[in-house]
Amino acid sequence: MHRRTALALLASLPAYAGLSRKALAAEWDGILTEAKGQTVYWHAWGGDPKINDFITWIGEKAQERHGVTLEHVKLASTADAVARVLAEQQAGQTEGGAVDLIWINGENFAAMKSQGLLFGPFAEDLPNWPLVDVAGKPATVTDFTLPTGGFESPWAMAQLVFEYDGKQVVNPPRTIGELADWILANPGRFTYPQPPDYLGTTFLKQVLYGVMADPALLQSPVDDAGYDAQVAPLWAWLDRVHPALWRQARAFPQNEPALGQLLADGETAISFAFNPGRASAEIAAGNLPDTVRTFVLDGGTIGNASFVAIPFNAAHRAGAMVIANLLLDPEVQARAQDPAVLGFQTVLNLQSLSAEDRARFDALELGVATLSPADLGPVLLEPHASWMTRIAQDWTARYGVAQ
Amino acid sequence: MTTAVTTDLLRLAPVLTLGLMVVPVAAGLAGTLAPALKNGGAGFAALADWPGLARAVALSLGTGLGSTLLSLLLTIAILAAFAGRPVFDRLRRLIAPLLSVPHAAAALGLAFLIAPSGWIARLISPELTGWQSPPDLLILNDPLGLSLTLGLVAKELPFLLLMALVALPQTGADQRLPVAATLGYGRIAGFVLTTLPALYAQLRLPVYAVLAYAMTTVDMAMILGPTLPPTLSVQVVLWMSEASLASRDIAAAAACLQFALVIAALALWRGAEALAARALTATAFHGRRLTGLDRPTATLALTATAVTAGSLGAGLAGLALWSVAGQWQFPDALPASLTMRHWVDSLPVLADTLSQTLIVGLAATLAALVLTIACLRAESTHHLRPGPRALALLYLPLLVPQIAFLPGLQVLAARTGMQGTLATVALAHLVFVLPYVFLSLCGPWRAWDGRIATAAATMGASESRIFWHLRLPMMAGPVLTAGAVGLAVSVGQYLPTLLIGGGRVETLTTEAVALSSGGNRRLIGAHAMLQLAIPALAFGIALAVPAMLWRNRRQMRGIA
To answer: Which residues form the signal peptide (chain A) (predicted)?
Structure first.
């Protein structure tokens, strides 16, 4: 079959459900042939050198195994890539688009999917898909309560953990209420990234989980009628701690790395990150003192998955699918989980791996500040994306413009 | 090439140049205005409902006007106090390196210097302050935008000073100042009354550019400016980076407002100019010698120079140190260990980035120089002097905030399939490089003494001979300076590179800004150092070449 025809056929099928495994393997061979020699432009946030190095390494693997060249387009914000695809759609450019692959999740995914900016479904037809722990890690197929429907493929799990300097904090708080007490007792030593920053809004959602009467409501879209009463405890909590935050809440760090820098500079004593392995990795890199440790809250902390998606007009769709599949490879996943590399949690079901592949994970050292999977506690599901948008907006109206 | 062809090409040059300014800006603006106006102006309505609007507007105006006024006054004070004195030559040598610092690098250096966890606090702690951990003080991102104003002054003062130095020899200061002195005027009064009016006439365009830039800067305001709310232009970028279409409409409306604000501020400035001119005339008629001004002004000028050069220098030294720092805890004054790891890690990637930066920068600068000189030559040959309207068009890319018209340009590039090539990015840079090159060059070029041409013509020299053998060589200094300015502008471009390059063209600046959102001072330091190297080299050449060319021509050395 002609390569173009094969691909067109792939794109036109809702899924390969009707194809036998053998036929699927043949189609994948077609994709591999198509991908060979392609250059895939992966638009991914470029603010962390460790992640950048990891993507470079992925590129080497892709070249070595499949003859695919990977170009990491470093973004300051994922929305830049969304804006680019949107601009191309508005300009009527339905093929040969600049973006082949996007690191994405949450509201960006919801926005792209609802505006028809994504190619798919493709994820569940990738050869490595059966290894994904769909049952044990529901976040791999549910992105902020929105079913992914195969329009994006997971590649890493993240969970909110708190970080503290053991030299300054002896008994870290275990609940949101205790955190407030600690903040009031230690003025100026805690803050959070300014919403609508991703991590800052995640922190607000974590507080919401802790103070809301019925957190189960978070799994449904915001209900206008009840909203004000439902979130009132969140604003009360913030009103209480704000005077005791870093800079009396008259300024906030702008993103996760800026928050991490405050801990590194000793300006804050308790911090948090969306990566259980971050503290260990930063200690290893000499950026954090080796007295830093991590903790989670009783009842669990919010967790989600990172995905890759392919725009509807990607110029190198086959290459992009090859990269998405490569990201699910056990060797790649084990490397991502290595605290010395990234410390990201794997999306794979370790039980489904071969003994050899499972050994790769068993061999990993946790790192001095990283909690064991058992100590990490339960993972709370991301609330529906409308909560994120709404509380970020309201936060800005309440605190985002100086009085 | 025959004379006729040259003549025809020259006639076309102004049209081509203006077209390069107007078409992209107009297309981009249309692309901005459309979403702002759609749905019956829903974007404007939402903007008006945004609670931070008044404050964001006030911040843009306040930091923009404040920093521009301060930079201009200090420029005048430094020139008045030191022109013609030995210390002046030392100052001169400071300007080029200061000027070549990219805005983002300067802001980051300054931020690390003055932050509560910054170098100054580390140097005096715990000995003088008793601080074992950084004090909880709001110095950076202060609500009034004072750090931002300081940062802007530190960057704009060297720019205005350089522009003034380029123009100064054309004002006849060498003759006027001694006359004022023999009449008993103090240095300051003599300079302000006799030289400033002629100097300001040539400095006006750079001052307007500074004002428009200061009001709309995004990178410096993100690093140093307030955040609750930020300045209007930063807020536009924040809205633009939200995924929802509604916030894009607000961003478009805010971009239109920002454009109007810049126009209003320029009008205000223009009015103040008239008032200042009247005050100056009145002072001159009083005939007071005002010698008492000299000493305090000299002190002020010296302090300002020391603070500006010192803060930029120390900030960059801090970044340089971070680029080789191992563990560096507060309140240690110096890192516990030094390592080249960050450099070794990033060098392989940098070779590629560096070459892309250079290709784009050199192409845009060269094209800008050729077009500018062709326009200026058409001016004298065909008397095609730009009218006020044509000049206003040339200003467009400097007055219209980048964020206002770049998204529209991006759509245009995508539609024509020109996105993501080095040539397209160079073309986009040209839109911003060209005005700066023209503004830098037109003053000194026009102020060239036309009697030299007349004398040459009476001796039988042809038009083109006069151009190639007299005017161009005599203008070597200004041309190279304009080229260096152009290269510095190109190297510093972030949004055009990102949007028009489709992310496929990576320059040192796009890399540095992507990293700066990650706050890793070590890598930022390494990138800032490399980002410095290109423009620094260009300004070095602009200073060194005329000095070598004119080593036997004392009178020519002022034109640098």
So the answer is: 1-17
Cβ contact (<8 Å) for A41 and B52? Answer: no
Length of chain B: 560
Write the CA distances from B337 to A291, A368, B320, B325, B351, integer angstroms: 18, 22, 14, 6, 27
Range of the domain at A186: 161-303+378-399
Residues of chain A neighbouring B228 (CB-CB closer than 8 A) = 194, 250-252, 399-402
Q: State mean pLDDT over B328-352.
A: 83
Q: Does B126 touch chain A (CB under 8 A)?
A: no
Q: How many CB atoms lie within 10 A of CB B176?
A: 16
pLDDT at B106: 87
Report the residue of chain A nearest B141, measured CA to CA. A251
Distance of alpha carbon A48 from alpha carbon B517, whole angstroms: 9
B488 belongs to a structural domain: no
Cα distance from A173 to chain B (closest Cα, Å)? 22
Q: A313 and A296, same structural domain?
A: no
Query: Where do we find the tokens 């490595």?
Result: A128
Specify which of A106-120, B333-347, B371-385 reaches the highest per-range mean pLDDT: A106-120
Angle of helix B422-446 versus helix B341-382 axis, rounded to 10: 50
For residues B387-409, average pLDDT: 73
Confidence of residue A190 (pLDDT cuts 50, 70, 90): very high
Cα angle B165-B170-B175, degrees, rounded to a multiple of 5: 100
AA identity, residue B47: L
| Higher pLDDT pick, B1 / B113 | B113
Q: What is the CATH number of the domain that holds B234?
A: 1.10.3720.10
Nearest to B52 among A80, A84, A400 (CB): A400
- Across the interface, whether the CB atoms of A87 and B407 are under 8 A apart is answered yes
Listing DSSP states for B421-474 in one string gives -HHHHHHHHHHHHHHHHHHHHHHHHHTS-HHHHHHHHHTT--HHHHIIIIIHHH
CA distance A300 to A277: 17
Per-residue pLDDT for A5 more than 70?
no
CATH code of A286's domain:
3.40.190.10
Name B339's Cβ contacts closer than 8 Å, sequence gap at least 6. Answer: B324, B325, B326
- Among B50, B142, B242, B328, the strongest candidate for a mutation testing the A interface, having the largest count of A CBs within 10 A, is B242
Residue of B nearest to A77 (CA): B241
Which of B40-54, B174-188, B376-390 is predicted least confidently?
B376-390
Check residue A19 and give its pLDDT.
45
What mean pLDDT do residues A117-143 have? 91
In chain A, the number of structural domains is 2
Structural domains in chain B (count): 1
Residue B57 lies in a domain: yes
Torsions phi, psi of B278, nearest 5?
Answer: -65, -45
Q: How far A364 CA lies from chain B's nearest CA (Å)?
A: 24
Asked if the C-beta of B424 comes within 8 angstroms of chain A's C-beta atoms, the answer is: no
pLDDT digits (tens, 9 = 90+) for A199-246: 999 999 999 999 999 999 999 999 999 999 999 999 999 999 999 999
Residues 234-293 of B with CB under 8 A from A: 238, 240-245, 248
A266 Cβ contact list (under 8 Å, min separation 6): A165, B117, B133, B134, B329, B330
Partner-chain contact A47 B419, CB within 8 Å: no
Q: Are residues A314 and A279 in the same domain?
A: no
The structure's pTM equals 0.77
The ipTM is 0.72
Q: Is residue A369 part of a domain?
A: no
Identify whether B500 is part of a domain: no
pLDDT given at position A141: 93
Does one domain contain both A232 and A197?
yes
Query: Which range has the worst mean pLDDT, A365-379, B239-253, B325-339, B474-488?
Result: B239-253
Cis peptide before B401 (omega within 30 of 0): no
What residues form DSSP beta bridges with B338? B325
Same domain for A286 and A266 = yes
